Amino acid sequence: MAAFCPVLTSLLDNDLYKFTMWQAMLHRFPQATAEYEFTCRNEPQYPLSDLLGEVDEQLDHLCTLRFTDDELGYLSSLRFIKGDFVDFLRLFQFQRRFIQASADGPHLRITASGPQVHVMDFEIHVLAIVNELYFRRFDAEAALRTGRERLTAKIDLLRSVDVAPERAHPLEIFDFGVRRRYSGAWQREVVTTLRDELPEFFKGTSNVLLARDLGIVPIGTMAHEYLQTFQALGVRLRDFQRAALESWVQEYRGDLGIALTDVVGMDAFLADFDLYFAKLFDGLRHDSGDPMQWAEKAIAHYQKLRIDPHTKRLVFSDSLDIPKVLALYDALADRAMTGFGIGTNFTNDVGHEPIQIVMKLVRANGQSVAKLADTPGKTQSRDETFLAYLRQVFGVSKV
């Protein structure tokens, strides 16, 4: 029997936005309950249910981990992380009773349910575990050889680009690859290589552990779950986006100012993103739909509000690769600040088709929540009645 090899050895091996959302929920809605559900959106090369035993072992191990003093010290050094949240993390430990994995035919079912501040951080860890276990069954030597060749080609492509100094804004690229990475070791190699080879373009990573270890900037603000939770926090449904943005402003008071736009679609978001929020937030993040159409809407909205788009940042994070990044940058570099978070194409481009796995919030405080993304395949809900109601409230037609 093979010796147990943990996928995760540090609770800091996680996206920054999990910590920032976690802190906001702890301070403002510590009593909220939540349920998260794992889903695979494409067809894997073998049934994910085959991983059940290994997943259970890894979850058992995850629930033994604690934040170390060094890790807490690093979090404390981030000016937007508050002392009482660090004190909470000092005591925090995942509870195994809040997460269950099972097999449903060929499918792997994983559900985390309980107090939100005790279950919301499972998400990225679960995705990292499933990904790494899945790819351990393939030829690692061939995968890493392919990955290194492709990474070198990406670096050469970026080096060949003539980013003229007269462009209004620089090209800035980030690693957003924790959730779909081939392995933790490979992500570390990729990020280290990008840091060393492309310092003029590569500006940070969402992985807090790697940011600490490699001396680079941790990147991230909010994800869909944060805004979705407000659909179940007692505010009028039509007002949930405004309530979420206002709560974020009160929590961070100028820090972490990139707002996510596609929980009910860009048009519905902009209807709520008035002059007050447009001035308070530093920019917007795209995660579904046509990126250029989205950018045009964002720039037009700022101009309508008499805000100079050059003072705002448009961050792109939806299925990016280097050619897409360069095309978007070329179109927008003289119109607004940009940023590009590349996930799978950096950390899981090794010759195997990645599995499209997510672990999304499906219920909060006992009621359904949903996402109406600008890409139909990214719409998320298991409650069609609530989804129809949400569409009606925000005037979003079914695509």
Automatic annotation (TrEMBL):
GO terms for biological process: NAD+ biosynthetic process via the salvage pathway. Residues 172-397 form the Nicotinate/nicotinamide phosphoribosyltransferase domain. It catalyses: 5-phospho-alpha-D-ribose 1-diphosphate + nicotinate + ATP + H2O = nicotinate beta-D-ribonucleotide + ADP + phosphate + diphosphate. InterPro entries: N/Namide_PRibTrfase (IPR041525), NAPRTase_N (IPR040727), Nic_PRibTrfase (IPR006406), Nic_PRibTrfase-Fam (IPR007229), Nicotinate_pribotase-like_C (IPR036068). Keywords: Glycosyltransferase, Ligase, Phosphoprotein, Pyridine nucleotide biosynthesis, Transferase. Pfam families: NAPRTase, NAPRTase_N. GO terms for cellular component: cytosol. The modification Phosphohistidine is found at residue 224. GO terms for molecular function: glycosyltransferase activity; nicotinate phosphoribosyltransferase activity. Belongs to the NAPRTase family. This is Nicotinate phosphoribosyltransferase. It comes from Ramlibacter algicola.
